[in-house]
Amino acid sequence: MVISFKDGFKFIGIIIIAFCAVFVCTMFLNFQLDLIKVKQLLTSDEAIIFYNAQLSTSKVVCAVTGGCLGATSLVMLVFYIKHYVDTHKMHLGILKALGYSDGKIAKHFWVFGISVLIGTVAGYCLAFAIMPRFYSAQNADGYLPDITLRFHFTVLLYFVILPTVLFSGFAIIYALIRLRQPALAMIRETPYAGKEKKLTAAKNSARPFLRELKFSNLKSKKVLAFFIVFSAFCFSSLTQMSLGLRDFSGTMMVVIMMLIGIVLAFTTLFLSVSTVISGNAKPIAMLRIFGYSDKECRSALLNIYRPMALIGFVLGTVYQYGLMKIMIEIVFKDVADLAEYKFDYIVMLIAFAVFAVAYELTVYLYSLRIKKLTIKEIMI
Predict the structure, then answer these.
(1) CB 224 within 8 A of CB 305
(2) How far apart are CA 1 and CA 13, in angstroms?
(3) Looking at the predicted structure, is the pLDDT value of residue 261 above 60?
(4) Contact of 80 with 112, CB cutoff 8 Å
């Protein structure tokens, strides 16, 4: 199995998501482990309350960030393995016809875990690089004694070694499942169509062609729809949360969360929209041959994802509000002189306006590629 540079470049999404997850979780978990070391030095009630609040914050952030981004990386890995097998079906079928077993072919898919390794190592190293400033920012008010930065192997194990091993193992297992197809069918590149799918297609054949194309495109690319939702969710939740934290946290945390939200949003948006374009290259070229305008092509294949982006933004808004309420009213409830958290409609409108402009601009720029597609280059 040979993975080209073009195939490897698509793993940038997994690298960035793994980087963001490990970057945040490493800082907070390492801080939590070092924070426990100073517990016996606390004397005042105020220091103990602040200590408990910081400990709870670290646990919540690690659980939420690690869980959400880890699940997203897993979904993205599944998508890329499926996409690789589907686009290299003929080559893999020839290998099977030559006598290679599914296991021999699948074991080479461990290289998909390298993307996780690159992201986790980069996130781990950067986290340690800025951790001294992070420690100072977390104890800026001086409630706690000086916290010494220490190396903890468990952090390296949980956030670099284990994720790489688990994702590589999962890639092999999932590839083995995807390769359980007859070699001849893979060489011919004939997808299996069950009875239920045929009946559904027949039932929906009465719809207008472009309308049917919209729904079939959305139905066949559920993972892309998920990425569109996730990109809007990341931008909405993390930008609003970072701006909402300006009264409760230091500038450093605000900037970190803002950057992570923007990077995740635009990475997933870029990957999803680009894959929509490349995956629908042939239909777009054929539509143009039959006289459909660029606007109609864009409407049929790209505009259907706009409601998905809106759903993601709404979910992100609700999520960040609920999480902030939990953090402020439950985790930090005993901290004195803490301002009450209220939903900021101005911040929401600003975040929505920025995301709407960014989303529409991205879709428009990619739709320009439709005009350059010709049936000759697509078929070649």
Answers:
(1) yes
(2) 21
(3) yes
(4) yes
Q: pLDDT at position 121, please? A: 93
Backbone dihedral region for residue 189 (phi beyond 0: left; psi -120 to 50: alpha; all else: beta): left
In angstroms, rounded to a whole number, what is the distance separating the alpha carbons of residues 181 and 179?
Answer: 5
Residue 359: per-residue pLDDT: 82
Question: To 5 degrees, how large is the angle CA 355–CA 281–CA 195?
Answer: 100
- pLDDT confidence of residue 56: 76
* Per-residue tokens: 356: 């709407």
* Beta strand extents in the chain (DSSP E only): none
- Cα 141 to Cα 53: distance, rounded to the nearest angstrom: 14
Neighbours of 154 (CB within 10 A): 10
DSSP per residue, 59-113: HHHHHHHHHHHHHHHHHHHHHHHHHHHHHTHHHHHHHHHTT--HHHHHGGGGGGH
| Tens-digit pLDDT profile for residues 316-353 | 899 888 877 776 666 556 555 555 667 888 888 988 99
The answer to whether 233 and 253 are in contact (CB under 8 A) is no
Mean pLDDT of 279-287: 69
Name the band, by pLDDT with cuts 50, 70 and 90, for residue 93: confident
In angstroms, the CA 266 to CA 356 distance is 12
